[in-house]
Design goal:
The chain is mainly α and 256 residues long. Among the domains are: 87-182; 202-256, no CATH class. The chain is 69% helix and 4% strand. It is built from six helices and three strands, in the order αβββααααα. It has a three-stranded antiparallel β-sheet, with no helix packed on it. A hairpin with a 6-residue loop joins strand 2 (46-49) and strand 3 (56-59). The radius of gyration is 51 Å and the shape is elongated.
Length: 256
Amino acid sequence: MGSLFSSPKPPDRKKLAREQRQENIANANLQRDYNRIGQQGAFGGSISYDPVTGAQTTTVGDQGQRLAGNFDQAQQQYFQTAMQGPSDSMGAFNQAWDMSRQMMDPLFADQTAAKENQLRNQGLVPGTKAYDTALSALGRQQGDEYRRTALGLQNQMFGQSQDQFRTGLAALAPGYQYGAQAFMSPQVSPFSQVNVGQPTNMADLAYKQYAADVNARGGLLGGIAGLGGAILSAPMTGGTSLAGLGLSALGKRFGA
């Protein structure tokens, strides 16, 4: 035990660190316990926590598993369709090309016959340069028209196959997404988190108590010093002892 005239002992920093750590752990455990609430979902799913380890267990429930199984088929079909990609458009192109040729070939044949008749009326005969040049020019025009038609059909058929592919994926996507997101979770209700506040600042408490002890010790020493002065200045009469003066001065000092 310290002397009356010794200063209060400052707080032990290592002890404060241990106490603060314990306080932080207790506060964290309290926060965890308040916010780990076992719940039951609408489809039989649940969330529960082990009271000792704090481990979380999540189940989707029997009904949720059955529903998820139904949507699993849509998920598999979705990925199969996605991996296959757009369908082959060559068959559709060939069919469209045949139909175009059925319309274009007779038209081009009529154009060629009309051109030959025109050239003969002008006095040109096959084998002459002017005659052959005119028919060659017409042939190039007709070939360009064939190529433009083929290119247009290719773009059209490819675009249609892309559209069909996207439409197929879009039709399967809701089942895949809904099944994966809606039924592979417990479907529990959210709740407002509880805030237990900050842990107690152990160092702040200790140093405030230390400051209070220092102030109290200083006031006590000042009072004793005043008592000493009163004893020394008191008149010494017959039969008066220093002890008596001291008790008398103490009584006057503290109102006794």
